[in-house]
Design goal:
The complex is a heterodimer of chains A (447) and B (101). Chain A is an alpha/beta fold. Chain A contains 14 helices and eleven strands. Chain A has an eleven-stranded mixed sheet, with helices on both faces. Chain B is mostly helical and 101 residues long. Chain B contains four helices and two strands. The chains are: A alpha/beta (447), B mainly alpha (101). At the A-B interface, α8, α9, α10, α11 and α12 of A face α1, α2 and α4 of B.
């Protein structure tokens, strides 16, 4: 029996993880003998369209929607011979850090089923960790690949903004969204990124990009530790393992210096203005006319209102927040300042990368939290992304890799960040670490 | 501490065509001020410049807006639209009530 069949069968046995929202019949998985990703079984976050498959973005408002075309990344995966074995759960329209905002129930963390897998690409991270696929695609707008990768003990890349086409990705915040791989190893991250990256005329924000793997000359390499991000209150075990990662590179002979990114504390507040503002515009298309889901109504206004009542609470909250920050009287005080903060953050990152080749921080302040623990407090939930959002605002690549476990057995992730278009540096650095350690090869004993 | 009244929530919801239950409105009067207080620090930020990054402002190198083969066919649109007749998507009446078909 084929590998795809085995994975689908295994996912069926692990159904209580609630990782997949859709899996094709095993016989319907497209097999290919050729291409750089032949033999790779991939799970795809359910906000990326695969032609003729349902796409829900974990929202009731997309009930009945069957994707009419392949996203560019899917076209590229198919051409490279990959097998697509299912669509994974996420927070509704990728708004969340735990998958608790999915209309189809929370995904469980395979390392501890009482805990969240992170989000919004929680289904993809959980699928890789539970060995239900070889690799997965996620999307990252403020940490949605890296935070679940850290919580589930897998490797996840948020590529340079514009290096991967967003065509066929259901938009959250178009100026921040980027698709990237979640896999066990940095080697596989590289393989998949090489296939999915590149300019696409169907996404005008894509840049000329031709990924080239690199080897690092450690004797001529400088790592920066951004003091503002190391001053954030971190779980002591996470801090210790991130320091151990720094030590690993020190042993290779790199220079390590402290650097400053003064506007770091403004990144999360700016993000929570820019993101909802774009959300309020991007989600206007779900109106009961363009998609199958459509409420009974006497007139157009009722059609809009009754159909859009299908959005979940977090989506409504962000649409309203965005509408507030874009409305007359608030636009200059919120949206414009947030955009100026973003401009400043971009500048600070560009300056820091004049001094160093790579930054290291923790990926998350805490390990995976319990289901329900943060559900009632939006700010506490938003703080899961404290260490990850700035990379989205700056448009730079960032990767989370497994660097150890807590005493309780939960995975710990650390984050590598490099300058725009230098995705190859953080991938090479992660590969070097994974060559000499085996944290990324650990698998949970799922009870 | 920012405050947002139920009336203001209703006004915002009307602008974006969102229907909210009474419970949702009540929750939002608590949640939105919490978030606005959190982002309040932005207004105290000392920013170096008034200018915005060019990427933040606009797209560059826009392609021309031409019909291409990537556009959906009528048949595909028919599958997507909730109501479709005579090669057209049926939209409810803007004013008054829609007539039964």
């Amino acid at each position: 029996m084929s590998k795809a069949h085995d994975y689908i069968k295994k996912a069926e046995q692990q159904k209580d993880l609630n990782t997949f929202l859709f899996m094709p019949e095993p016989g319907a998985v497209r097999m290919c003998d050729d291409g750089e990703l032949k033999n790779y079984a991939l799970a795809i976050k359910d906000n990326i369209q695969i032609k003729d498959w349902p796409t829900t973005a974990s929202s009731k408002i997309l009930d009945g929607f069957i994707a009419p075309y392949d996203a560019t990344v899917i076209k590229k995966l198919k051409t490279a011979g990959a097998m697509l074995i299912g669509k994974t759960n996420l927070d509704e329209f990728a708004m969340g850090s735990s998958t608790e905002n999915s209309a189809f129930g929370v995904t469980k963390n395979p390392w501890d089923k009482e805990r969240v897998p992170g989000g919004s690409s929680g289904g993809s991270a959980s699928a890789v960790a539970a060995d239900l696929c070889d690799a997965a695609l996620g999307s990252d707008t403020g940490g949605s690949i890296r935070q679940p990768a850290a919580f589930c003990g897998v490797t996840g890349l948020k590529p340079t903004y514009g290096s991967v086409s967003r065509y066929g990705l259901l938009a959250l915040a178009s100026s921040l969204d980027v698709i990237g791989p979640l896999t066990r190893s940095a080697e596989d991250v590289e393989k998949i990124f090489q296939v999915i990256s590149g300019k696409d005329e169907l996404d005008q924000t894509t840049i000329d990009y031709n990924y080239q793997p690199t080897e690092i000359d450690w004797s001529n390499f400088t790592i920066g530790l951004p003091k503002e991000l190391w001053q954030i209150e971190l779980d002591p075990e996470i801090k210790a393992q991130t320091e151990a990662l720094v030590e690993f590179y020190k042993q290779k002979g790199v220079k390590v210096i402290e650097v400053s990114l003064p506007s770091s504390d403004l990144a999360l507040p700016a993000y929570y203005i820019i993101l909802p503002s774009e959300v309020s515009a991007n989600l206007a298309r779900y109106d009961g006319i363009r998609y199958q889901k459509s409420a009974e109504a006497k007139n157009l206004l009722e059609k809009y209102l009754h159909t859009r009542a299908n959005f979940g609470p977090e989506v409504k909250r962000r649409i309203l927040l965005g509408t507030y920050s874009l409305s007359v009287g608030h636009y200059d005080d919120y949206y414009m300042i947030a955009e100026r903060v973003r401009t400043q953050i971009k500048k600070e990152y560009a300056e820091v990368f004049g001094q160093v080749d790579m930054l290291i921080t923790a990926t998350t302040p805490t390990p995976a939290f319990k289901i329900g623990e943060k559900a009632s407090d939006p700010i506490e939930m938003y703080k899961s992304d404290l260490l990850t959002v700035a990379a989205n605002l700056a448009g730079v690549p960032a990767l989370s890799l497994p660097v150890g476990f807590t005493k309780a057995g939960l995975p710990i992730g650390a984050q590598l960040i490099s300058a725009r278009k230098n995705d190859n540096i953080i991938i090479a650095a992660a590969k070097a670490f994974q060559k000499e350690t085996d944290f990324h090869q650990q698998t949970p004993k799922i009870k | 501490m920012s405050e947002i009244s139920v009336t203001e929530i209703e006004r915002l919801a009307a602008l974006v065509r969102l229907e909210l239950t009474e419970a949702e409105k009540q929750n939002l009067t608590t949640d939105l001020p919490k978030i606005l207080n959190f982002v309040e620090q932005l207004r105290l930020a000392k920013l170096e410049s008034d200018s915005l990054d060019k990427e933040v402002l606009a797209l560059e190198d826009l392609r021309s807006d031409e019909v291409s083969e990537t556009n959906l066919s009528l048949g595909e649109i028919e599958k997507l639209a909730p109501q479709f007749k005579n090669d057209q998507v049926i939209v409810p009446a803007v004013f008054g009530e829609s007539e039964d078909e």
